[in-house]
């Protein structure tokens, strides 16, 4: 996705469109709401069972690309995704202490999105996501992860603290002041001070 002048974006993307025949081309102009709904038809609410894990990567190396491809081919479900996301640009221009998000120095994110329908396949699909995530650790960015795709909360406290980095202590102070009873806890929870 290019967020800027549409004509400039089309010029920048044109070489990619000329690389060869594409199975899908989303390179046209789209409004923000359409972009947010791109995959809704692939994953209708209530039809799928999902387990996603993602980690930030400092760099995108050939070895990491090979691992992502191998994981994609090994997925137990045809609905699952092994995907690499580019960060940087405007995201990296925000100061680390300006938002809760914190450190924005990662270049990439690797996500394993297990998606399947049959409850009997739960173990195989969850194991696939966890194994791929574990195998990508050596490419990770300071042990940080994208908390929206953090699995089912395993490693929750340590992963949350590492992912928020230097902002974690400030978030604990805010939590203690505004939510000491921890009512907002159905997320990557930050506990209030006792």
Walk me through this protein's architecture.
The protein has two domains: 1-38, no CATH class; 39-178, Vanillyl-alcohol Oxidase, Chain A, domain 3. It is an alpha+beta fold and 194 residues long. It has a three-stranded antiparallel sheet, covered by helices on one side. The chain has helices at residues 6-17, 32-36, 62-74, 122-135, 156-164, 168-178; strands at 49-57, 81-86, 108-116. The chain has six helices and three strands.
Offer a concise description of the structure.
This protein is an alpha+beta fold. It is built from six helices and three strands, in the order ααβαββααα. It has a three-stranded antiparallel sheet, with helices on one face.
């Amino acid at each position: 996705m290019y967020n800027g002048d549409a004509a400039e974006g089309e010029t920048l993307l044109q070489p990619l469109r000329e690389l060869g025949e594409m199975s899908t081309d989303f390179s046209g102009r789209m409004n923000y709401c359409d972009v947010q709904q791109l995959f809704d038809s692939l994953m209708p609410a209530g039809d799928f069972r999902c387990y996603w894990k993602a980690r930030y990567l400092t760099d995108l190396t050939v070895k990491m690309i090979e691992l992502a491809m191998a994981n994609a081919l090994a997925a137990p479900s045809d609905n699952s995704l092994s995907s690499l996301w580019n960060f940087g640009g405007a995201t990296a221009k925000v100061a680390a202490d300006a938002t809760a998000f914190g450190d924005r120095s990662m270049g990439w994110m690797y996500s394993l999105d297990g998606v399947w329908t049959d409850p009997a396949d739960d173990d195989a699909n969850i194991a696939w996501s966890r194994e791929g995530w574990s195998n990508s650790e050596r490419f990770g960015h300071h042990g940080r992860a994208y908390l929206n795709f953090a699995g089912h909360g395993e490693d929750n406290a340590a992963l949350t603290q590492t992912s928020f980095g230097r902002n974690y202590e400030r978030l604990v102070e805010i939590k203690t002041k505004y939510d000491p009873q921890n009512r907002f806890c159905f997320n990557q929870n930050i506990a209030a001070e006792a």
